[in-house]
Amino acid sequence: MPSLIAKRPAVKFFNPATDKWTQPFWDAAVQHRLVGASCAKCGAFRMPPTPFCPHCHSQLLNWVDLPGTGVVYSYSIVASAIMPGMDDCLPYVTAVIALDEAGDTRLISNVVDIPVDQVRVGLKVRVIWDDDWGGMTIPRFTAELR
């Protein structure tokens, strides 16, 4: 029996919060650029970006273009609907992605378009973009081509 393919959560369940600290991330996503917040003083990455660097307490940020690759650090397969209207988007995979070239930065996203039984810790992934996702562009990840 073939494995089920990892889908995307439904748009109606997605409601990201944006503010002055996160808006540059979402602005870059519209351009299909994955960026990370780096302290302009000490260079430490932080995601999500916070008002103060946890290392040196600076408020200055640089937004650094990242290669859009990483590895699955942790994941969960959602296979049962917990709310009405979820059945059409099952199964989906929520994952914590350790981003390449971003220090210890990790991003919560989804792994999509691969069989769910192939998702594992350490899986190499690359970003793909979901445009017009409730008015936003959302970075998702899929298995990296070899």
Query: Taking Cα atoms only, what radius of gyration do you get, to the nearest Å?
Result: 16 Å
Distance between the terminal alpha carbons, to the nearest Å?
25 Å
Task: Estimate the mean pLDDT confidence.
Answer: 92
| Major sheet size, sense and barrel closure | 5 strands, antiparallel
Content of β-strand: 35-45%
Coarse morphology? globular
Question: Oligomeric status of the shown chains?
Answer: single chain
Structural class: mainly beta
Order of helices and strands: HEEEEEEEE
Estimate percent helicity. under 10%
Task: Please describe what this structure looks like.
This protein is mostly beta strands. It has one domain (17-143). Helix content is 5%, strand content 37%. It contains 1 helix and 8 strands. It has one helix at residues 23-30; strands at residues 35-39, 45-46, 61-65, 69-78, 92-99, 106-111, 124-133, 136-143. The strands form 2 sheets. Strands 6-5-4-7-8 form a 5-stranded antiparallel β-sheet, with helices on one face. It has a 3-stranded antiparallel β-sheet with strand order 2-1-3, covered by helices on one side. The radius of gyration is 16 Å and the shape is globular. The mean pLDDT is 92.
